[in-house]
Amino acid sequence: TPSALRSVLTFTVNLARTAGTLILEGSQAVQSASDVNEKKNSVDLVTEYDVAVEELVKSEIAKAYPGFKFIGEESYSAGARPDLTDEPTFCVDPIDGTTNFVHGFPFACISLGLIYQKRPVLGVVFNPFLEHLYTAIEGQGAYLTRGSSQPLKLPLAAPKPLNSLSKALVAIEWGSDRGEGTLTGKSSSFLRLAGDPAEGIVGGRMAHSLRSLGSAALNFAMVAQGGLDMYWEIGCWPWDVCAGIVIAQESGGVVTGSHTALTSATSGNPSTDPFKVTPEILAGRKYLVIRAIADTP
Ligand code: IPD
User: Fold this and answer.
1) pLDDT truncated to tens, each residue of the chain (297 aa)?
2) Measured from the CA of 95, which atom of ligand 1 is nearest?
3) Among 71, 124, 139, 282, which is disulfide-ready with 112 (CB 3.0 to 4.6 Å)?
4) ipTM
């Protein structure tokens, strides 16, 4: 019910702020450490803090909501592959933007999403570096709360629809898969987003510019906030996007991707045109979130 969700939101916000303190401490410690663990290659980073934050969050959820299920990035890496059921399920990335966290680039966050009956219904994204807290409940709007001592809570609403991609500020991400196939496909999409057709870039939309915040959840949040018009990425995992989906949608944004099948982590087809929502996009791990429907076919 709406009031049950509001009570879960209060719990989740407190948890995000507690986790945020650990994330800030960890970022300081990691920046002075000599080495960072790598997952599949030298750019896919994980730290002891990703694991520690996830453990903290998982145990607090288990205490407060013993009946809820849990999907988390680090638990998944360690082999936990729970089926997605109709039960309430937290879907958590303890540190989204781990590369930023390691470098001290202040765009990393904890992303806590709640799925119910296989749909994301509640999202909390907290960037402790900037003290930006994004919250949303399905049907109850999205909010940005800045600061912690005298927090300022602002409703998020997508500004007027964008008429053309050529007027857009677009988020893209490089991701951690740097193989030829993926990177060639992605960078050709970047070329078409940014390229000038008058200068020979076939299909170029000459967007105002491209940005990479380095965190999928914060890209979603920034679209909700209106600072970005669109975010396109191949290869997101459910925990990267679950909370962001609710926040973006509740601000009036449009999200396409495989969020109806949050646990299907099939690899995407990087050559897919980002401007077309194809069955492959719907089936794969590709996400497009836009501030409002623009000149998408
Ligand atoms: C990653 C970040 C990155 C995005 C990847 C994510 P992580 O999450 O959000 O910006 O490009 O798709 O997996 O590894 O920092 O938790």
Assistant:
1) 888 999 999 999 999 999 999 999 998 888 776 666 766 666 566 688 888 999 999 999 999 999 999 988 888 888 877 777 889 999 999 999 999 999 999 999 999 999 998 788 999 999 999 999 999 999 999 999 998 877 788 888 866 666 677 888 889 998 887 888 778 877 888 888 889 999 998 878 898 999 999 999 999 999 899 898 888 887 778 888 889 989 988 998 878 764 433 333 222 332 233 333 333 333 333 456 665 433 332
2) 16
3) 124
4) 0.94
Annotation says 196 is catalytic: no
Give the right CATH number for 165-290 from 2.60.40.10, 3.30.70.1350, 3.90.950.20, 3.40.190.80: 3.40.190.80
- Please tell me if the domain spanning 2-156 has the same topology as the one spanning 165-290: no
- DSSP label at residue 109: E
CB 21, CB 154: distance < 8 Å: no
CA atoms within 13 A on the CB side of 71: 26
Q: How many Cβ atoms from other residues are within 10 Å of residue 291's Cβ? A: 27
Q: Which of 73, 138, 177, 233 is catalytic?
A: 73
Position in ligand 1 atom list of the atom nearest CA 108: 15
Extents of the domains making up the chain: 2-156, 165-290
Which residue among the candidates 12, 47, 98, 263 is catalytic per the annotation? 98
281 is catalytic: no
Residue nearest to atom 12 of ligand 1 (CA): 236
Whether residue 177 lies in the annotated active site: no
2-156 carries CATH number 3.30.540.10 = yes
Q: How far apart, in whole angstroms, are the C-alpha atoms of residue 53 and residue 109?
A: 11
Please name the helix (run of DSSP H) or strand (run of DSSP E) that holds residue 284, with its range, or none. Answer: none
Ligand 1 atom at minimum distance from 235 CA: 12
Alpha-carbon span 291 to 263, nearest angstrom: 25
